[in-house]
Design goal:
With 327 residues, this protein is mainly β. Helices cover 0% and strands 46% of the residues. The chain starts with 19 loop residues before the first strand and ends in a 5-residue tail after the last strand. The model has no long low-confidence stretch (mean pLDDT 89).
Amino acid sequence: MEGGQTVRFTSVALVQGATHLTPKPGDSGDQQRDTVLATLEPFRVIARDHHDAPVAGVTVKWSAYADGSLDIRTSVTDDDGVAETRYRLPTQAGTLRVQASVEGLIGSPIAFEAHAEPATPTNLVIVSGDEQVALPSSSLAPYAVRAIDAYGNAVEGVVIDWEITEGGGSIDPARSTTSTPDAATQRPLAMTTHTLSPIEGSHVVTATATSVPGTPRATFRSRAVSGIVWVYTYYYYGWNNAYSGFEPDEIVVPAGGTVAWLWGPCDWGCDDHDVTFEDDPTEPASSPTQREGTHFRTFDQPGVFPYHCSVHSGEGGMVEVVAGGAG
């Protein structure tokens, strides 16, 4: 054009005379929060024309990006230009999205967020720390427990009381709350640390949600032993290069003491091992051949007790049992 002027044209679709779609001001239903399976208040949108007047008769499609259910998936704007639907939350807690769309209208699609909260807790589940084996007076890796509702959702803010019910020792803290985030899942849990008593044997700690209906409990079991031997396989530079054995291969324990053989983790691969005693391979029973697990033996009499792995030649160790203590 003369003078270098540019004229721009904007094309806007008309749907029943409407040009744009917006959330209903002050009453859209966005950011609602309720417990799982609750039916939320309606989500609302309004269709308007180019004069910003409401338009009736516009068909709005609704969709939900999660489980749960929409009351209706298609609705039509009324005389006020408003269309709505309701949404029933799923059983899984978290943030969800409901979407309204009218093809061709400015502002479409419109996304609404809703937040499903866990229901009342009904159970405690062990996250980590159960079935540990350690030397007497050792502090164990923390016990961790999670409070969940009937649908498996983790519940925050549940007070957990910890009590030693067998074996003694100490716990710290004696009360904790499901609030510490689990690094793996970011779900709340409660933790405590158990220091074993100086005496060998079984130890039991009970976690109780006293304030929860039904008083759910979880039980952690551990064992104090006089000696621990790791049974391991380590692969390096491929499966054809490996070494395995017992660590330590010599151990001293007092008469009456128990030794635990712990099969190591399989981070670098696994292999079969066993613990076969050369003094008498059957009584007390030697361990079965296995790739994981634990084997215990209590030594009542002083002496030297060599053992080996029947699967791998040259792989062996020794337990020395002394009277009156291991020194």
